[in-house]
């Protein structure tokens, strides 16, 4: 029975999870401004409740992004520091895939597009297909909402649907799951599969997934009402 400790901070909602076989425990904190301070306490609470140490876990998983630049960087840094100290391997999990996992669990089917609000009039998105395991149809990318072009009949999840509702009219009758967001529960479940498949990395090799180099607006963009 694998023990997986996971954290997800790619959005303003921080979450942690401990998966022990089929037993799952989670902690959440919404509207977090300093994820690093909050997440450490949440992780410690989970471990104390389970009466185990991090060193007893098979892996430490984290939501690798894309998402908030600070949040993704924080998740990776925390995972690296904790994993080094406890000498456990790390599993980076793409946050968009974690969203697809959540939508799939909610009954969205096997072909899913995850769309996360990236601000600045753009979204992070990817398309996945579940056939015994997840397969990437369209790799994570950054684009305008109107440029999200799914392949075939899909369900779509994520807050990009709400942030750019008019631009997503082209989705037609696709099933929509706008409330699905990255969460440590699904990071942990995906990481458990990765551990079984030997898809782990040393803490020093863990990397966040950045899709945008630009993290600030110009004066002209701010005056035009573009969201940072």
In words, what does this structure look like?
- By secondary structure, the protein is an alpha/beta fold.
- The protein folds into 2 domains: 117 residues, ATPase, nucleotide binding domain (Nucleotidyltransferase, domain 5); 82 residues, Nucleotidyltransferase, domain 5 (2-Layer Sandwich).
- Helix content is 29%, strand content 30%.
- It has 6 helices and 10 strands.
- Strands 3-2-1-4-5 form a 5-stranded mixed β-sheet, with helices on both faces. A 5-stranded mixed β-sheet has the order 8-7-6-9-10.
- Helix 3 crosses helix 5.
- About 4% of the residues have low confidence.
Radius of gyration: 17 Å
Low-pLDDT runs: 215-223
Largest sheet: 5 strands, mixed
The global form is globular
Report the CATH topology name of the largest domain: Nucleotidyltransferase, domain 5
What series of H and E elements makes up the topology? EEEHEHEHEEEEHEHH
Taking all residues together, what is the mean pLDDT? 91
Strand order of the largest sheet: 3-2-1-4-5
The computed structural class is: alpha/beta
Number of domains: 2
Instruction: Give me the CATH superfamily of the largest domain.
Output: ATPase, nucleotide binding domain
The number of E-state strands comes to 10
- What CATH architecture label of the largest domain applies? 2-Layer Sandwich
CATH class of the largest domain: Alpha Beta
- The rounded distance between the terminal residues' Cα atoms is 43 Å
Number of helices: 6
In percent, how much strand structure appears in the residues? 25-35%
Percent range of helical residues:
25-40%
């Amino acid at each position: 029975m694998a023990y997986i400790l996971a954290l997800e901070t790619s959005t303003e909602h921080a979450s942690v999870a401990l998966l022990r076989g089929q037993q799952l425990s989670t902690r959440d904190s919404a509207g977090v401004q300093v994820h690093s301070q909050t997440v450490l306490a949440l992780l410690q609470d989970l471990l104390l409740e389970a009466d185990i140490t991090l060193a007893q876990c098979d892996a430490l998983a984290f939501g690798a992004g894309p998402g908030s630049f600070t949040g993704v960087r924080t998740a990776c840094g925390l995972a690296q520091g904790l994993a080094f100290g406890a000498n456990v391997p790390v599993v980076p999990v793409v946050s968009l895939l974690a969203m697809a996992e959540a939508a799939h669990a909610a009954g969205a089917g096997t072909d899913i597009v995850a769309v996360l609000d990236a601000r600045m009039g753009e979204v992070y998105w990817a398309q996945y297909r579940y056939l015994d395991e997840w397969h990437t149809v369209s790799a994570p990318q950054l684009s305008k909402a109107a440029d999200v072009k799914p392949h075939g009949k899909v369900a779509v999840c994520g807050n990009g649907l709400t942030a750019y509702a008019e631009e997503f009219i082209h989705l037609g009758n696709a099933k929509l799951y706008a409330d699905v967001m990255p969460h440590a529960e699904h990071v942990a479940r995906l990481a458990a599969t990765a551990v079984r498949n030997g898809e782990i990395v040393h803490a020093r090799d863990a990397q966040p997934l950045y899709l945008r180099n630009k993290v600030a607006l110009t004066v002209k963009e701010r005056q035009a009402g573009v969201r940072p």
